[in-house]
Amino acid sequence: MAEANGSKTQAQPVADVEELTASRAVLYPLLWGFAGSFVLRTAVVLGLPDIIARAGPDETLTVKQIAAQLKSECVNELGLQRVLTALVNWQLFRCTKAEMSEEMQYGLKPVSKLLVTENNPHNQAPVVLFQTDPAALAPWQQLHRYVLYGESAWQSAHGKELWTCLNDNPELNKCFNACMASSTTIDLSVLVREYEGFKDIKTLVDVGGGTGKTLETIISSYPHIHGINYDLPHVITDAPTIPGIEHVAGSMFESVPSGDTIFMKRIMHDWSDESCLKILNNCQKALPEKGKVLIHDCVLQQSGGLPQIYDMLMMAHCDGGMERREEQWRKLLTTAGFSTINFIELLQEQWLIEAFK
């Protein structure tokens, strides 16, 4: 037994090598999970999905064929091959051997087709670009300050809240709006297909509706609805003219336009309970008797899954933002004066909450 400074050092138990190896196998993929994020960003920035898609449906291309279409005269083909190999191994791309050759040919799979930007209504590339932008990544370095001091991680990183940053930075604002519009497309396809309540709505107010993409999708299937797209002035500035939709600028913390139904898609999870109550109270004032609020958001389950990731994202990006369990939603809506509350599970961890006045 060794001694140092007059004290005895206890011998450490012999570690179980199998247990250590198994534990590291869990730890390391989490630690280096960012590698997948940045290989995705690399694929999008280089335009790899678009290059392959232009070759035709289900076509494949060699490294040399892809390299010839990159915007550089000195492409590192080995580097390109390594990126493509990683995308294949992570089940994002596919590859086959070319006929009469040992060269590998690379093609798209359904998941990588989501990253095609040309003629693709479900293009998810803007989501990749915003979430891997240096501005969006910096707050993750500050999560500990939220735990230790209750400080906003985004504000700790940037000196001001997310929404102020977007207002002050037009390029970041465009990147964010594109991300929000793209992340909406698949969700809305499910929502419009699964929720039959739209047929009875006359005026639908989309609070925090961005540039109007959500309402445009809903109204294309339910053209009898009059849509009011409500968001902050710097967002509405970029909103295009859309038939059947009125764009209104304002703050949901001050007032909400009147309508028989108020819709909020992934808005409430950005805010604390106190802030959400302010929004819901304004919704109460704007709704007629028997009017309703529709909240399209996560409902946290014990299994975690994607909503658990979203919860950490809210902690990083939003002051007080969080995903909520069913009982938390019920308490929030009941406190705001809503009577009948229905939880409708749509598909793949998507939920719609109906709350009636």
TrEMBL record:
Annotated organism of origin: Sphagnum troendelagicum
PANTHER family registered for this protein in UniProt: O-METHYLTRANSFERASE (PTHR11746)
Name of the protein: O-methyltransferase
PROSITE patterns: SAM_OMT_II
Pfam families listed in its UniProt record: Dimerisation (PF08100), Methyltransf_2 (PF00891)
Domain O-methyltransferase dimerisation span(s) in chain numbering: 30-117
Gene3D superfamilies (UniProt xref): Vaccinia Virus protein VP39, Winged helix-like DNA-binding domain superfamily/Winged helix DNA-binding domain
Domain of life: Eukaryota
Keywords noted in UniProt: Methyltransferase, S-adenosyl-L-methionine, Transferase
Ranges in coiled-coil conformation: none
Start and end residues of each O-methyltransferase C-terminal domain: 140-339
